[in-house]
Amino acid sequence: xxxxxxxxxxxxxxxxxxxxxFDPILLVVPAEGQTLRTDTxxxxxxxxxxxxxxxxxxxxQTALIRYKDHQxxxxxxxxxxxxxxxxxxxxxITDGFYSVxxxxxxxxxxxxxxxxxxxxxxxxxxxxHLYAPERTGKLNMLRPDKSLRHEYAFIAGTFxxxxxxxxxxxxxxxxxxxxxxxxYDEHTASALRLTPKDKSQISNLxxxxxxxxxxxxxxxxxxxQQADFFRILRIEKLLTVFLLVFILLIASFNIIGSLSMLIxxxxxxxxxxxxxxxxxxxxxxxxxxxxxxxxxxxxxxxLVLGVAVCLGQQHFGWLKLGSGNEYIISAYPVVxxxxxxxxVAAIVLALGFVAAWYPSRKVKVER
Length: 367
Description:
Elements: H1 2-20, E1 26-30, E2 36-37, H2 41-47, E3 52-67, E4 70-79, E5 93-96, E6 107-111, H3 112-118, E7 127-133, E8 148-159, H4 164-167, E9 170-174, H5 175-181, E10 188-189, E11 191-196, H6 202-213, E12 217-221, H7 222-225, H8 227-265, H9 267-275, H10 280-316, H11 338-360
Parallel strand pairs: 4-9, 6-8
Antiparallel strand pairs: 1-11, 1-12, 2-10, 3-4, 3-7, 3-11, 5-8, 6-9, 7-8
Helix pairs in contact: 1-8, 1-10, 8-11, 10-11
């Protein structure tokens, strides 16, 4: 149980680390609708906060991108110059470099999977075309193509987070380009990315900002930004615990059988104890404590071995995932959490107590 739960913790921390390279520490989004105004009083107060290191605007919507004969829908995210202070984008660049504006031309940074779908990479010089429907204009039924807003950018690099919703769908461009493409003014964004100065006071800062902004906005931490993913991880871990408890429940019948045979084997000793003055409750308590000591000793040995194996895997990587570069990491990730150890100990000791109590209550003193 310790090893399995620690491996699940390891995969959870690994994926959380990958998300944290891109997701901001705090994200402010509108409670209703897709956009917010950055020139309103509650939002402008964020820029004056001394406990906030950086506030970055992003505008994200769906558009059609085309390169030569290839065209696919994508999530176009416009970001400003402070984006690099809210995301560790340079660490996930796989080809080329990060740039959304070079001083003369608009640039774009694509997810690695999205770049493969349209057949281009960071070294291509052709323009990437972006199309979005007119937001405020009327549809021209005779020439529907005239109802599309068109922008273009030159690819600067590709990135990879090893998550499909980013690598296969996301395109980063400059914020002004996204505002032109989706027909918004310079004070419109879909979210604000926040980086606090003190990383240890995130929850406190989050509650303060939420109180300042009011009910019209939501402030999301990294777990809430990926709520569905982390909810699935918790459900998987819970189901794994139930499955392992069921296996332990079956294994506990060995203790019941062993204690039952011990009681049969010790009938003569039980009779001697009764003649010496021990009544049935005392004798039952003796077998109960003996059975529980057996399970407690097994629990202690199992926990020590489980923690030792996990720490060894964590430092030496004994168990490999596979050969080559097809995996993100070479060995199974392991993270030992003391809450898991306490949970395992409580479950095993509880099952051991029940397994010892059931046969001990069958003790009968023969006169």
